[in-house]
């Protein structure tokens, strides 16, 4: 990947983006301490297709990229909350 | 003794302009357009370099930058490739890596002790006894390396250009020109790049005694030139392939970063040397090198040569040699059926004998080893891959042209992820599965015949257009040549060795065999152990033979050996080209010029330049800072805080957003007041702190420190994406300048300028209001960071300088002085404020800095809360305390980061420490064990000398200790 | 010339023998199976055999030995870490390295050149001071030096960095060294092989057989191997191996890139690192400048190269050494760094009985090769991790006891 498509601003060079890590959902607050510690520290590190946070810095846009971390190919990008739209 | 031929069509030299230069102290002359090597070779110089390890004399091998036999220095630059760098008037050249010159290199003795230097010899010795290793290492380091670096070479800023095109064609030979023309006919933007000074590829030199190639070149050039949408760039090499078809094209001027929709690799092939004893003696060169000399520079490679071939190409070379009036003593062909073919017959008609089924067993050098005296030819057993030495014949000659085959210039294809297969028809690796948008044509694709190369280029262009989305007719595929262009094992063993595979690294056949004996029989391991392909030419002339030898040693087919990974760069690429002009972004505050005028010395804080202090002539740095502090404590000081992060949160959910984002509570915060904010990460670590000022029920104005501002704003945006609250976030850091006026006279300084009352009751600590100062609307905030009485003005950026000057004017008579970040740090310390990033580190939790009061744990949730619940159950390991050294302490001054020591072990460390003139004590913050954290506890700091200094835990409001 | 080279000159038959035997098919079972034939795995095998008498050991390597991060790093060895546990651990590694060429009878070109971590900002100077204090406390020779001392050691360095980032000082670390990375893997392989360990190249682990929370075997492309003890020492492939046993870790893979120039005569005698400019550089015994930079900014499980990396690195190299404009970069490459959130390794036992982890080596694995081998061998042999690596246990994350190395990385640049 050398280009990335911001859902708002279109395809831009990667240097304009900041990687925000995998998109994850926190467990409910009443989870066990161990579950919370695992959420905070552990990551699904194995390669595969992941939903990730990316930030287009010049425009201040956070969005989600569906990316294969093995091939570095991006399947699609979308704004959080607009998963359904293609 | 000139080897220059009479003027001929298509030559690259301009005979009307002579070029004078020197080589190793001797004067030479060549022509404009000559490469350094061609000019020297034309003048009869054949020993132009010395080899890396054995210091053997070296001349031309590939003459195409596929080897580094000829590496020179001109006193300014080093590692200059003589083969491809044009000679210039006045150059004073020397070969690199010699001791006493290329002719009399004192290190040439190493060649004779080479048996002492087996493959990987440096792994095998010199390490025992251990104490002698530095001695040997010093010798080895000095012997290694090529040129000497010139420390006075200027920093040259090369330009970078960005270009987009539809089709990028790499290589402007027959197939590349054809591809560019076919792609160009569509009207799309086509770029055609070629590393040579003139385009045409082998059409420009591989003539085989006829005009066919030259005519085809003329035709193709005319076609390409007729298309204005095809841009041709010569002397430009594609340095590497990067994802999404990004290809940096390197020229003398700089780098063009080309992004193409489709890429056609028509990069040709590297001719590979057959391997036989003394195949490196000057005068022994590749057939294509001989042709380049002949047709580009009109220089005779030798005058009486032997062609050693294993393909039909050798016969073309022989024809070109004959056309140039060079005697061809014999053609020696590894193939047993060669002499009966039509090519041999053609040569026979011109009086040249073909010796088939034979090899050059060895070259006899002349007395000085500076050239070829003769060659010994022997029958070659293709099954055993051995010379049958019972039937040797010696042929006198002064040169050898070697034509044993090719290796595809597939470097960029590999980098793009092409799967290659070994084709047993042509005996070379060819693309098997190309990645999307990548196409190959010509020799790199295994296609050699002229007509077919043209067709293959057109075919690739057609596929490229289809990839871009243009419907194009299916073109019939062009199959690889069906005659072997390369010999499957052009290697002649010799008991005395010196049959070189890698000329950069002086690696002989036996080195591979011995490496395999030692277990390095995987191609990657073999590469690392023998260093084959690790020299500057990166295996262009050596990798294929290495693979063939390893396959033979292991008794497996070539494709099972595979290839080593191809990495950028195609040719070694200058740091100046890659680095370009450099880019160091930094931010200046709107008051930068004001600060500068006042003598500010700036320091980097995050991306910002902030005033560290204001230089006063004749005052030391320490005294300058103390004077700035004193002004704040006794009168008033002013500081430019414009770099602070400033964020507006507006909307009905603004308070809720803050409640979730920060640790404190904001829903009931009164309008007009300020509250402390602390940000944690999800693991409960303190990230940042600042203030939240409530300007309206639905409007908070946040200010925070300089370094983290951008990252904190980014995190706010992200959490907002998740929470989807009814708010808006605006980063107004650049919209407002900020200045603080601090000290007992601060109110007096400002009172005449502002349109609001600054009385304690109207404007208490931790309050904010919108006001006007000298007619400019500002946000006026009462803060307590550096002194009890501090007013922070947030001013629209365009009016910042005006307001600063008005405040300075008003404060002049009252002793108002500017102060910088150095004084600020001491002032905040005196006030007892710990600072994230200075008094915390990447693991600090709020409990460790005694910030329990900042945690509203009864809120439903905030970032880090769940982790704090876990952390709270665990015993605290350390805690930040305020401390003071004893009154009147006059011993060694401890510094920040000195350790707190207890019973000889590390208990904690000092995070801030300074002598405060205000307090009259040395004060600071330190981490100590929890049982040392009570007021009046004593602990010990180890100063730099090792001396232990006692400190006492005190209340953090140091200023209250004022004498 | 050393006498030991004479035999090569005098022998009719080349006297070299295989560094390690060419085993093709593994046996049905081993006492210990080590996944990963890099420096760490081979060192663990060597010490298992040498110090614990456990020789029925198979090392399974998917590709060729030393082909992962062992052969891709910039070969720096140092111990100037921030935390006492880090300094002690890496210092123990340095101590082994110093005698390793002799022990393995292979010249690793272990060359102690001194190591300068340049500071261009006040906050970087603070970190240098902090590290120096901790190093000094543990007995490691590191101290803060001023610009003059840096200039003396490297007169070619532009102390203003082309006016962009003036050098205020540095952390000098006397034991800082470089070594031939490949040799370390080969030396341990030979040592282990001689003691009876079996090394299998081109042998890929496809699964790990766990029954009732205990390791009972591994599935490979060369068949099933029964074993009760498995060590994973696979750096960038750790998440894939851990997935096989359903073990979550904090490890995320980021590529780490490097490049080398053409050889030149020696001029750079020390190892230089600049945090602000994201450069580390030393000159190899071949004369090449070996250069690295910071991690790639996002997760990728591949060793692809990027142009951004080499552009950024060379630009900063020119700030430090403006005269290198026309020195050429020959080759760039990458490794897959297994990063942890606190920049310290994950070593020792795991919740799965018999599954041992040697991972999280990020950008600091090469320097730890000997000591990680030694301590992991002990952990496996005794089923108990030695104190030296207690801080690096996997459970520290659940315990919220991350190592303090994270502090150094987050305090200023």
The helix-and-strand class of chain B reads alpha+beta
Largest interface: B-C, 100 and 99 residues
> CATH homologous superfamily name of the largest domain in chain B?
Probable tRNA modification gtpase trme, domain 1
What is the beta-strand fraction of chain C? 15-25%
- Output the CATH topology of the largest domain in chain B: Gyrase A, domain 2
Q: Sum up the overall morphology of chain C in one term.
A: globular
Series of H and E elements of chain C: HEHEEHEEHEHEEHEEEEEHEEEEHEEEHH
Question: Which descriptors apply to this entry?
Answer:
heterotrimer, A: 86 residues, mainly beta, Folate-binding fold, four-stranded antiparallel β-sheet, 6 strands, 42% strand, B: 963 residues, alpha+beta, Ubiquitin-like (UB roll), FAD/NAD(P)-binding domain, seven-stranded mixed β-sheet, six-stranded mixed β-sheet, 23 helices, 49 strands, 23% helix, elongated
Would you mind describing this structure in some detail?
The complex is a heterotrimer of chains A (86), B (963) and C (413). Chain A has one helix at residues 33-41; strands at 3-6, 10-13, 17-22, 49-56, 61-68, 73-78. With 86 residues, chain A is mainly beta. Chain A has a single domain (3-78), classed as Folate-binding fold (2-Layer Sandwich), CATH 3.30.2270. In chain A, the strands form two sheets. Chain A has a four-stranded antiparallel sheet with strand order 3-4-5-6, with no helix packed on it. Chain A is globular. In chain B, the strands form twelve sheets. In chain B, strands 8, 9, 10, 11, 12, 13 and 26 form a seven-stranded mixed sheet that branches. A six-stranded mixed sheet of chain B has the order 40-41-42-39-33-43. Chain B folds into six domains: 17-154, Roll (Ubiquitin-like (UB roll)); 159-270 and 407-468, FAD/NAD(P)-binding domain (3-Layer(bba) Sandwich); 273-404, FAD/NAD(P)-binding domain, CATH 3.50.50; 492-576, Orthogonal Bundle (Arc Repressor Mutant, subunit A), CATH 1.10.10.1100; 640-828, Gyrase A, domain 2 (2-Layer Sandwich); 875-961, Aminomethyltransferase beta-barrel domains (Elongation Factor Tu (Ef-tu), domain 3, Beta Barrel), CATH 2.40.30.110. By secondary structure, chain B is of the alpha+beta class. Chain B has 23 helices and 49 strands. The longest helix of chain C is centred in the first third of the chain and has 21 residues, at 84-104. The mean pLDDT of chain C is 95. Helix content of chain C is 29%, strand content 23%. Chain C has ten helices and 20 strands. Chain C is globular. An eight-stranded mixed sheet of chain C has the order 6-7-5-15-16-17-14-18. In chain C, strands 9-2-1-13-20-19 form a six-stranded mixed sheet, sandwiched between helices. Strand 29 (573-574) of chain B pairs antiparallel with strand 18 (328-339) of chain C.
């Amino acid at each position: 990947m050398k280009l990335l498509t911001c859902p708002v601003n279109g395809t831009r060079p990667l240097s304009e983006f900041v990687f925000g890590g995998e998109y994850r959902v926190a467990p409910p607050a009443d989870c066990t301490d161990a579950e919370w510690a695992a959420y905070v520290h552990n990551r699904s590190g194995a390669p595969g297709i992941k939903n990730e946070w990316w930030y287009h810095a010049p425009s201040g846009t956070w969005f989600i990229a569906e990316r294969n971390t093995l091939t570095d190919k991006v399947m699609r990008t979308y704004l959080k909350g607009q998963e359904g739209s293609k | 003794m000139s080897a220059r031929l009479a003027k001929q069509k298509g030559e690259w030299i301009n005979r009307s302009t002579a070029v004078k230069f020197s080589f190793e102290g001797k004067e030479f002359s060549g022509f404009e357009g000559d490469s350094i090597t061609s000019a020297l070779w034309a003048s009869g110089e054949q020993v132009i370099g010395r080899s890396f390890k054995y210091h053997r004399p070296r001349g031309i091998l590939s003459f195409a930058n596929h080897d580094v036999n000829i590496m020179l220095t001109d006193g300014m630059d080093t590692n200059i490739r003589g083969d491809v760098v044009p000679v210039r008037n006045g150059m004073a050249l020397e070969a690199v890596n010699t001791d006493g010159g290329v002719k009399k290199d004192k290190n040439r003795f190493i060649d004779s002790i080479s048996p002492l230097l087996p493959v990987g010899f440096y792994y095998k010795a010199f390490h025992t006894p251990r104490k002698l290793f530095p001695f040997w290492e010093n010798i080895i380091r000095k012997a290694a390396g090529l040129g000497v670096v010139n420390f006075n070479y200027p920093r040259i800023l090369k330009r970078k250009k960005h270009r987009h095109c539809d089709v990028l064609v790499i290589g402007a030979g027959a197939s590349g020109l054809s591809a560019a023309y076919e792609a160009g006919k569509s009207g799309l933007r086509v770029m055609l790049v070629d590393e040579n000074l003139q385009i045409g590829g082998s059409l420009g030199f591989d003539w085989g005694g006829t005009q066919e190639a030259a005519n085809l070149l003329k035709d193709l050039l005319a076609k390409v030139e007729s298309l204005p949408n095809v841009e041709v760039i010569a002397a430009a090499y594609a340095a590497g392939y990067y994802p999404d078809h990004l290809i940096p094209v390197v020229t003398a001027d700089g780098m063009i970063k080309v992004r193409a929709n489709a890429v056609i690799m028509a990069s040709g092939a590297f001719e590979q040397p057959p391997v036989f004893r003394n195949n490196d003696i000057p005068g022994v060169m590749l057939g294509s090198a001989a042709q380049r000399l002949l047709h580009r520079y009109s220089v005779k490679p030798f005058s009486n040569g032997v062609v050693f071939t294993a393909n039909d190409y050798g016969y073309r070379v022989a024809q070109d040699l004959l056309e140039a009036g060079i005697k061809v003593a014999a053609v020696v062909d590894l193939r047993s059926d060669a002499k009966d073919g039509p090519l041999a017959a053609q040569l026979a008609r011109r009086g040249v004998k073909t010796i088939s089924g034979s090899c050059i067993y060895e070259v006899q050098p002349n007395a000085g080893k500076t050239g070829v005296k003769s060659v010994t030819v022997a029958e070659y057993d293709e099954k055993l891959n051995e010379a049958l030495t019972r039937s040797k014949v010696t042929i006198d000659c002064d040169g050898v042209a070697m034509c044993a085959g090719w290796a595809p210039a597939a470097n960029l294809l590999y980098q793009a992820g092409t799967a290659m297969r070994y084709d047993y028809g042509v005996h070379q690796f060819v693309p098997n599965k190309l990645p999307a948008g990548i196409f190959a044509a010509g020799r790199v694709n295994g296609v050699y015949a002229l007509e077919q190369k043209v067709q293959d280029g057109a075919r690739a262009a057609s596929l490229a257009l289809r990839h871009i989305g243009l419907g194009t007719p299916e073109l019939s595929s062009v199959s690889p040549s069906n005659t072997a262009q390369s010999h499957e094992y052009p290697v002649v063993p010799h008991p005395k060795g010196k049959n070189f595979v890698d000329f950069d690294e002086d690696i002989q056949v036996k080195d591979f065999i011995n490496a395999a004996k030692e277990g390095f029989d995987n191609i990657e391991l073999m590469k690392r152990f023998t260093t084959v392909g690790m020299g500057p030419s990166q295996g262009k002339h050596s990798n294929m033979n290495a693979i063939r030898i390893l396959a033979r040693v292991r008794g497996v087919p070539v494709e099972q050996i595979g290839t080593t990974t191809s990495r950028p760069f195609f040719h070694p690429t200058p740091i100046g080209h890659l680095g370009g002009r450099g880019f160091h972004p930094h931010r200046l505050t709107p008051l930068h010029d004001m600060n500068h005028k006042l003598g500010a010395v700036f320091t980097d804080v995050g991306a910002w330049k902030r005033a560290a202090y204001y230089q006063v002539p004749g005052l030391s740095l320490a005294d300058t800072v103390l004077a700035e502090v004193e002004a704040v404590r006794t009168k008033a000081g002013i500081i430019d805080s414009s770099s602070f992060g400033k964020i507006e949160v507006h909307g009905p959910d603004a308070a809720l957003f803050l409640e979730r984002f920060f640790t404190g509570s904001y829903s009931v915060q009164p309008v007009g007041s300020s509250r402390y904010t602390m940000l944690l990460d999800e693991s409960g670590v303190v990230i940042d702190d600042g203030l939240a000022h409530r300007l309206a029920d639905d409007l908070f104005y946040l200010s925070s420190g300089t370094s983290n501002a951008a990252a904190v704003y980014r995190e706010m945006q992200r959490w907002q994406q998740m929470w989807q609250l009814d708010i808006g976030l605006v980063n107004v850091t650049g919209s407002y300048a900020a200045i603080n006026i601090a000290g007992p006279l601060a109110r007096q300084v400002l009172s005449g300028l502002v349109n609001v009352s600054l009385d304690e009751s109207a404007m208490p600590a931790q309050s904010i209001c919108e006001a006007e100062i000298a007619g400019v609307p500002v946000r006026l905030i009462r803060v307590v960071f550096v002194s009890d009485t501090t007013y922070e003005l947030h001013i629209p950026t365009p009016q910042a300088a005006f307001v600063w000057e008005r405040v300075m004017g008003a404060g002049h008579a009252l002793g108002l002085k500017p102060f910088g970040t150095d004084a600020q740090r001491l002032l905040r310390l005196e006030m007892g404020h710990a600072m994230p990033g200075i008094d915390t580190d990447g693991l600090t939790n709020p409990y460790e800095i005694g910030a329990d009061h900042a945690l509203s744990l009864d809120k439903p949730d905030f970032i880090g809360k769940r982790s704090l619940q876990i952390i709270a159950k665990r015993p605290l390991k350390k805690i930040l305390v305020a401390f003071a050294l004893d009154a009147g302490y006059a011993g060694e001054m401890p510094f920040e980061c000195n350790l707190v020591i207890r019973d000889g072990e590390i208990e904690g460390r000092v995070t801030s420490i300074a002598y405060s003139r205000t307090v009259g004590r040395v004060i600071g913050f330190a981490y100590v064990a929890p049982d040392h954290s009570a007021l009046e506890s004593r602990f010990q700091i180890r100063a730099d000398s090792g001396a232990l200094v006692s400190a006492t835990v005190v209340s953090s409001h140091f200023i209250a200790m004022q004498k | 010339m050393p006498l030991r080279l004479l035999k090569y000159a005098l022998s009719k038959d080349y006297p070299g023998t295989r560094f390690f035997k060419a085993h093709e098919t593994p046996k049905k079972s081993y006492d210990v199976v080590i996944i990963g034939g890099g420096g760490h795995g081979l060192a663990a095998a060597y010490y298992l055999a040498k110090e614990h008498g456990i020789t029925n050991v198979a090392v399974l390597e998917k590709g060729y030995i030393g082909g992962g991060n062992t052969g891709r790093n910039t070969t720096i060895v140092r111990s100037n870490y921030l935390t006492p546990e880090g300094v002690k651990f890496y210092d123990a590694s340095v101590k082994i390295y110093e005698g390793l060429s002799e022990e393995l009878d292979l010249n690793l070109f272990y060359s102690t050149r001194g190591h300068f971590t340049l500071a261009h900002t006040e906050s970087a100077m603070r970190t240098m001071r902090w590290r120096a204090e901790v190093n000094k406390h543990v007995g490691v020779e590191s101290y803060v030096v001023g610009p003059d001392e840096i200039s003396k050691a490297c007169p070619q360095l532009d102390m203003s960095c082309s006016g962009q980032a003036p050098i205020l000082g540095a952390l000098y670390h006397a034991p800082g060294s470089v070594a031939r990375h490949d040799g370390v893997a080969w030396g341990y392989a030979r040592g282990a092989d001689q003691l009876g360990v079996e090394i299998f190249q081109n042998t890929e682990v496809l699964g790990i057989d766990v029954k009732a929370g205990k390791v009972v075997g591994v599935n490979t492309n060369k068949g099933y191997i029964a074993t009760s003890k498995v060590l994973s020492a696979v750096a960038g492939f750790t998440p894939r191996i851990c997935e096989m046993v359903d073990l979550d870790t904090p490890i995320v893979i980021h590529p780490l890139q490097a490049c080398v120039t053409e050889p030149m005569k020696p001029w750079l005698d020390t190892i230089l690192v600049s945090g602000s400019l994201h450069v580390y550089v030393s000159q190899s015994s071949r004369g090449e400048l070996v250069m690295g930079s910071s991690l790639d900014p996002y997760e990728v499980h591949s060793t692809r190269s990027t142009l951004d990396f080499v552009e950024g690195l060379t630009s900063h190299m020119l700030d430090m050494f403006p005269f290198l404009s026309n020195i050429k970069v020959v080759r760039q490459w990458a490794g897959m760094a297994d990063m942890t959130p606190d920049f310290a390794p994950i070593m020792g036992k795991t919740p799965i009985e018999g599954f041992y982890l040697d991972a999280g080596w990020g950008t600091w694995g090469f320097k730890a090769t000997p000591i990680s081998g030694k301590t992991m061998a002990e952990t496996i042999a005794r089923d108990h991790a030695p104190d030296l690596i207690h801080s690096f246990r996997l459970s520290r994350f659940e315990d919220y006891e991350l190592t303090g190395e994270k502090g150094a990385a987050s305090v200023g640049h």
